[in-house]
UniProtKB/TrEMBL annotation:
The chain crosses the membrane at residues 27-46. It is found in: Cell membrane. This is Macrolide-specific efflux system membrane fusion protein. Gene3D superfamilies: 2.40.30.170, 2.40.50.100, 6.10.140.1990, 6.20.50.140. Residues 80-233 form the Multidrug resistance protein MdtA-like barrel-sandwich hybrid domain. Residues 1-22 are annotated as: Disordered. InterPro entries: MacA_alpha-hairpin_sf, MdtA-like_b-barrel, MdtA-like_BSH, RND_pump_MFP. It comes from Paracoccus versutus (Thiobacillus versutus). Keywords: Coiled coil, Membrane, Transmembrane, Transmembrane helix. Belongs to the membrane fusion protein (MFP) (TC 8.A.1) family. GO terms for biological process: xenobiotic detoxification by transmembrane export across the plasma membrane. GO terms for cellular component: cell envelope; efflux pump complex; extrinsic component of membrane; macrolide transmembrane transporter complex.
């Protein structure tokens, strides 16, 4: 009754009581993150700074720098000649083989020359006959001249005058016959010289001193020189070689006669052969077929001494035409130079120090240092985390 009197509300037995409030899961997550952040900050402080970094360095050294135009080339003998046959016939004897050393004027080959020898012999006999005929006419002329002289002394008589005219006529005819015979003799002598020269050409001699680099004919082979010169041997002077380089039209503008050049061969890639550019041919070589539409190249020529004979005809050469060079200069890798020209130098304490050195010549890999760096200093070319160490390290 007291409860009713005071107006208190009694809940019905079926009425639900209000839910009890509990802390949300998000508060748990936030708490864990906060603790992790505090732990990370403590570890950072204990470690003493950022993760350890290893620097890639390169020393400032003295070296030679060089910029060059590169090209491929082919090694050829500086002087060479193809020896051919000037007369037709069978190659009777070949006195040399490929690789033999020959001297100028040395007998190389002999061609069967029976026909030429017979022609020479016939002309010699004809000249002998003509010489005898001339001697006979000369004797007749002497007699005719004496007869004309005797009749001339008797010119006062009418009968002697007729005889004088006949004697003078005979004398003049003999003189004319001798002149005609002399012309025939001169022609025969010219023919004999020609046949003797043809006979001499059957013995082929070397036009130069050098080495036989190729034998192009064999003994017993029939040679026909009426339409084309059949080649027998190729002789070259291997003491001096010439390199023919194919240079692109984009690079040929940088070449000048007299500029230094060096090359290597496939057999000796580490051996540099140095020379001087002799000339650049003014027009590109004529190309045929599919090569006519290929890249335009120009031929650059230079000579190289070959005393040991290590350079052989036909070898491929990798050629470098030096357009710019600097010898024994301070240099650093290009990778150590920033875009603004700054360089980071590793101090003795192991900390980087930024400098702005003065630079000179630059190649693809290195740049010349004219001031601002000393020989032996270490420049930083890159950096990376230290291998094997954690980014976060707890101090003991």
């Amino acid at each position: 009754m007291n409860a009713l009197n005071h107006g208190a509300k009694i809940p019905a037995p079926w009425q639900e009581s209000p839910p009890t409030r509990r802390p949300g899961k998000r508060w748990v997550v936030l708490t864990v993150l906060a603790l992790a952040a505090l732990a990370g900050a403590g570890l950072w402080h204990l470690r003493g700074g950022p993760p350890a970094v290893a620097y890639d360095t390169a020393p400032v050294i003295r070296r030679d720098l060089e910029n060059a135009v590169t090209a491929s080339g082919r090694i050829e003998p500086h002087a060479h000649v193809d020896v051919g046959a000037q007369v037709s016939g069978q190659l009777r004897r070949l006195h040399v083989a490929a690789g033999d050393r020959v001297e100028a004027g040395q007998l190389l080959a002999e061609i069967d020359a029976e026909v030429q020898a017979a022609q020479v012999e016939g002309l010699q006999a004809e000249l002998a006959r003509l010489a005898a005929e001339r001697s006979e006419l000369q004797a007749q002329l002497g007699f005719a001249e004496r007869q004309a002289g005797r009749h001339s002394s008797l010119a006062g008589r009418s009968s002697s005058r007729v005889t004088l005219e006949e004697a003078e006529r005979d004398r003049d005819v003999l003189r004319a016959r001798i002149e005609a015979l002399d012309a025939t003799i001169r022609r025969s002598r010219a023919g004999l010289r020609a046949e003797e020269a043809t006979l001499a050409r059957s013995r082929i001699t070397s036009p130069m001193a050098g080495t036989v680099v190729a034998a192009l004919a064999r003994e017993g082979q029939t040679l026909n020189a009426n339409y084309d010169t059949p080649l027998i041997l190729r002789i070259a002077d291997l003491a001096t070689m010439t390199v023919r380089s194919d240079v692109s039209e984009a690079d040929v503008v940088h070449l000048r006669p007299g500029m230094p050049v060096w090359f290597t061969t496939l057999g000796f890639p580490d051996r540099k052969h140095r020379a001087t550019l002799r000339q650049v041919l003014p027009a590109p070589p004529v190309k045929e077929g599919e090569e006519a539409n290929s890249v335009v190249t120009y031929v650059a020529l230079f000579d190289i001494a070959n005393p040991g004979g290590a350079l052989l005809s036909g070898m491929t050469a990798q050629v470098f035409f030096v357009t710019e060079s600097a010898a024994d200069v301070l240099a650093i890798p290009v990778s150590a130079l920033d875009e603004d020209g700054a360089v980071r130098v590793l101090s003795a304490a192991g900390t980087p120090e930024t400098r702005h050195p003065r630079t000179g010549m630059r190649t693809r890999s290195h740049v010349e240092i004219t001031s601002g760096l000393e020989e032996g200093e270490l420049v930083i070319t890159g950096e990376r985390p230290t291998e094997g160490e954690p980014l976060l390290r707890i101090a003991p």
